[in-house]
Specification:
heterotrimer; A mainly alpha; B mainly alpha; C mainly alpha; A: mainly alpha; Helix Hairpins; 4 helices; elongated; C: mainly alpha; two-stranded antiparallel ribbon; 20 helices; about 75% helix; globular
Chain lengths: ~120, ~160, ~500
């Protein structure tokens, strides 16, 4: 059930990235899409009544393994968040440069490429 | 930006060091507690960004110029790759944890997971400098409108 | 040569990319020299691995699958590796003189080498998330490189490319998350073993759709193609050559083939979708290309069309395999598709490099403003003619052989409609390139172009190298050479399950 909510978040971001006219809003839409997917990925590793996957000194290994949530998606999502950060930084620099060249943030005004 | 009021500058001067220290702590114990290189790097970058916001761009650029930052950036990345390549030399495969195999420390200690703390330090260096560079470049360049309506991007000197 | 050379394909370009901004800021030629040295070393290493037959697996960090990341190289991988490094070497060599009009050479080469590292990583990796990470590295570098000149069109094209490319990558990540949720593995071989046991649950169908959309955006197949006609012309010429020549193939078609043939497994519906999209790309691309007057935009539309050929060939082979049809025709069709992939890299990058030089020399990209360059630049004219005849499928150039294979396979399996469509599209491609040759080279020289001269020698060498390959690649079908180069690649796709078995067996003995 919560997985479909993540999908809804993804679709909201997709809608925003595809239909908005302001370049900065498009970038926000891309970020929302990334949040949706990252959230989905972390939730995949969830285990009911599980604990954080950090071993303390006094834990037994088997008990820990049966109770902890899956740490692999958390590591992968960390990488994905960094990638999303890179995309956001690059796209915002492009937005600034586009404003310098065209004088507007509106993509319907940037129509030099045709065909 | 010419910096903020005196209260903000004084508090920043005290707090910035603590933020830097906290970022270093998160990096160094990345193999024991959540965090690691990337999170620590972001926090250290935040300390420099705080410096920029409170004191102004010129002051921050005097502390850490764009050229130094670019060199540190490449050094951090190169260090990361070098550690991976050392794995081939000493251990046989790319990125193998060769220090763990030769000097295994006791668990839950600071010096315990082999080369993972070293990788964390390299990543922290790269991420912090990269984020600071991205912020300062976006802040420093300004769009000037000339008389006939054309726009150019220049690096504005600010009046102190 | 052991498998220990595998990490070097990623480590060499990464290391050089990090080194160049530090050392090459002041000294003029150092960045060019380092970058060319790196790509030459990569190309030599790729050729050596192909000829010496080093295959196998490499576990990063010594961790065995499914715990660790596994890098594996089979026939398809090594073919892609050689193609990628060949085209990147030609492009860096061309950049030595071409980039003199731009500033910031160190940054250009750094980004370029990051893109090469990403593409090499995509081809060599055997882990799904590692594929995604390298895909993103290569895509990032290409977004930045398309915007390199910072003119109006370049920025606009780069922004469009960035938005669509990010949507594609996010879709791929969603697919990976779904697959991890159902199977619990990320290593391609382990996923393949896990899926091959059971049927096709709904989650896998959803994951297939996401992968198809995501990699389809990267490969510019027809519903997802709008970014390509804007991005490829606006980039500097060597970057256009790289983008059209290898990026859409390594990130799009190779990843699609690997995931669909080896990991998820080909079934009837997927292959029908592939064939449909391939056919649609072929026709739409070429019909849109015929009416173009901008040289580089015309070439970009032709890229879409030729990618349709590759997807059609590979998809048709998959369809025949999955429905138990004519196995020989399936092999032939996949062979044609993969051979066309290799050919297209060579002649399309040659076309873009020539177009780049023509644009540099004449100052325009519009065909109507050119003319009569026949006498002024004979060597460039020869190279462009060779490449144009190759792409149109005129014998004995390399395009002819690969298209012939696809048509033969369609005839052999009895699908005459597909064969006729392929021939028709080829004919329209020929028309469109005859238009290019007539307007650019024949005719009278306008007054504005009295000053043009032939390319400097440093730019002629990569053109010559690629042109020779265009002529000579037909020889790849000679049986002795084919067994080394093409047959292992075909076998990797035809026997989808063999991939998983070889990778896992290499670790079972330990």
């Amino acid at each position: 059930m919560i997985y479909s909510l993540c999908f809804v978040l993804f679709v909201i971001g997709l809608y925003c990235a595809l239909t908005k006219k302001n370049t900065v809003k498009i970038v926000i839409g891309l970020s929302i899409m990334e949040y949706g997917v990252n959230l989905f990925f972390v939730l995949v590793g969830y285990r009911r009544r599980g604990g954080a996957p950090i071993i303390g000194k006094a834990d037994s290994l088997t008990q820990f393994l049966s109770q902890a949530v899956d740490p692999l998606p958390q590591a992968l999502v960390l990488t994905s968040i960094v990638i999303g950060l890179g995309v956001t930084a690059l796209s915002l620099s492009l937005c600034i440069r586009l404003y310098e060249k065209y004088g507007t943030f509106d993509i319907t005004e940037m129509r030099r490429l045709k065909g | 930006m010419t910096g903020m009021s005196l209260i903000v500058k004084t508090i920043t001067r005290w707090v910035m060091v603590f933020i830097f220290l906290y970022g270093a702590y998160i990096t160094l114990t990345g193999h024991l507690t959540p965090g690691g290189g990337f999170a620590g790097g972001v926090i250290i970058a935040c300390s420099y960004i705080l410096l920029t916001l409170a004191y102004g761009k010129q002051f921050a650029l005097r502390r850490l110029s764009v050229r130094t930052a670019s060199r540190l950036d490449s050094t951090g990345a190169f260090l990361f790759l070098a550690i991976g390549l050392f794995g081939i030399w000493f251990g046989g495969t790319f990125f193998v944890n060769f220090l763990q195999r030769t000097f295994p420390g006791r668990e839950f200690r600071l010096v315990s997971a082999g080369m993972i703390p070293l990788i964390n330090i390299a990543i922290c260096l790269k991420v912090s400098v990269s984020l600071f560079l991205a912020f300062i470049i976006m802040a420093v360049l300004r769009i000037e409108t000339a008389g006939d309506g054309t726009r150019t991007m220049v690096q504005k000197e600010e009046e102190e | 040569m052991t498998t220990a050379v595998f990490p070097l394909f990623v480590a060499i370009p990464l290391g050089t990319a990090f080194l160049i901004p530090v050392v090459a800021r002041r000294r003029k030629g150092l960045a060019d020299g380092l970058a060319n040295f790196a790509t030459l070393a990569l190309f030599a290493a790729g050729l050596a691995v192909m000829v010496l037959g080093t295959r196998g697996v490499y576990a990063i960090g010594g961790w065995r699958p499914p715990f660790g990341i596994v890098w594996s190289l089979d026939g398809l991988g090594i073919l892609m590796l050689v193609i990628v490094n060949l085209v990147s070497f030609a492009a860096t060599f061309f950049s030595i003189r071409y980039m003199e009009g731009y500033t910031g050479h160190a940054k250009y080469y750094s980004l370029f080498l990051l893109m090469v590292a990403g593409m090499n990583g995509v081809v060599i990796t055997g882990d799904l998330f590692n594929l995604f990470v390298f895909l993103e590295i290569a895509s990032f570098a290409s977004y930045a490189l398309v915007a390199f000149g910072c003119e109006h069109e370049e920025l606009e094209a780069s922004f469009k490319y960035l938005v669509l490319g990010s949507i594609g990558s996010t879709l791929v990540l969603f697919g990976i998350a779904l697959i991890y949720g159902t199977t619990g593995y990320l290593t391609m071989a382990s996923i393949s073993e896990a899926i091959r046991g059971g049927g096709k649950p709904l989650v896998l169908v959803l994951a297939t759709t996401f992968f198809f959309a995501g990699f389809g955006i990267k490969a510019a197949l027809v519903p997802f193609h709008p970014w390509l006609p804007d991005a490829h012309p606006s980039a500097p010429a060597p970057i256009s050559a790289m983008l059209s020549g290898v990026l859409i193939k390594a990130l799009g078609i190779y990843a699609l083939a690997r995931v669909f043939f080896n990991v998820i497994g080909m079934d009837r519906l997927t292959s029908i979708v592939l064939v449909t999209v391939g056919g649609l790309s072929m026709t739409v691309g070429v019909l849109l290309a015929v009416g173009q007057w901008d040289l580089k935009r015309l070439l970009a539309y032709h890229s879409i069309s030729q990618m349709g050929y590759v997807v059609l060939g590979v998809g048709f082979g998959g369809y025949l395999i999955s429905t138990g049809g004519n196995a020989a025709a399936a092999s032939l069709s996949i062979l044609g598709g993969i051979f066309h992939l290799a050919n297209h890299s060579v002649f399309k990058s040659l076309l873009f490099l020539c177009a780049g030089f023509i644009e540099r020399a004449t100052g325009t990209r519009q065909l109507k403003e050119m003319g009569g360059l026949f006498s002024r630049m004979p060597l460039t004219r020869a190279a462009t003619t060779i490449a144009a005849l190759s792409i149109a499928g005129v014998p004995p150039f390399n395009g002819f052989w690969s298209k012939l294979l696809i048509v033969f396979a369609a005839f052999q399996a009895g699908y005459l409609g597909l064969a006729l469509m392929t021939i028709a599209v080829s004919f329209v491609t020929l028309i469109s390139f005859l238009k290019v040759l007539r307007y650019a080279f024949l005719g009278s020289l306008p007054d504005a172009l009295r000053e043009v001269h032939e390319s400097p020698p440093l730019m002629i060498v990569p053109l010559g190298l690629l042109a020779v390959l265009c002529i000579g690649m037909g020889l790849l079908l000679v049986p002795a050479v084919r067994e080394v180069v093409l047959d292992p690649a075909v076998a990797a796709l035809v026997n989808g399950g063999v991939y998983a078995r070889t990778v896992l067996a290499a670790f079972a003995g330990e």
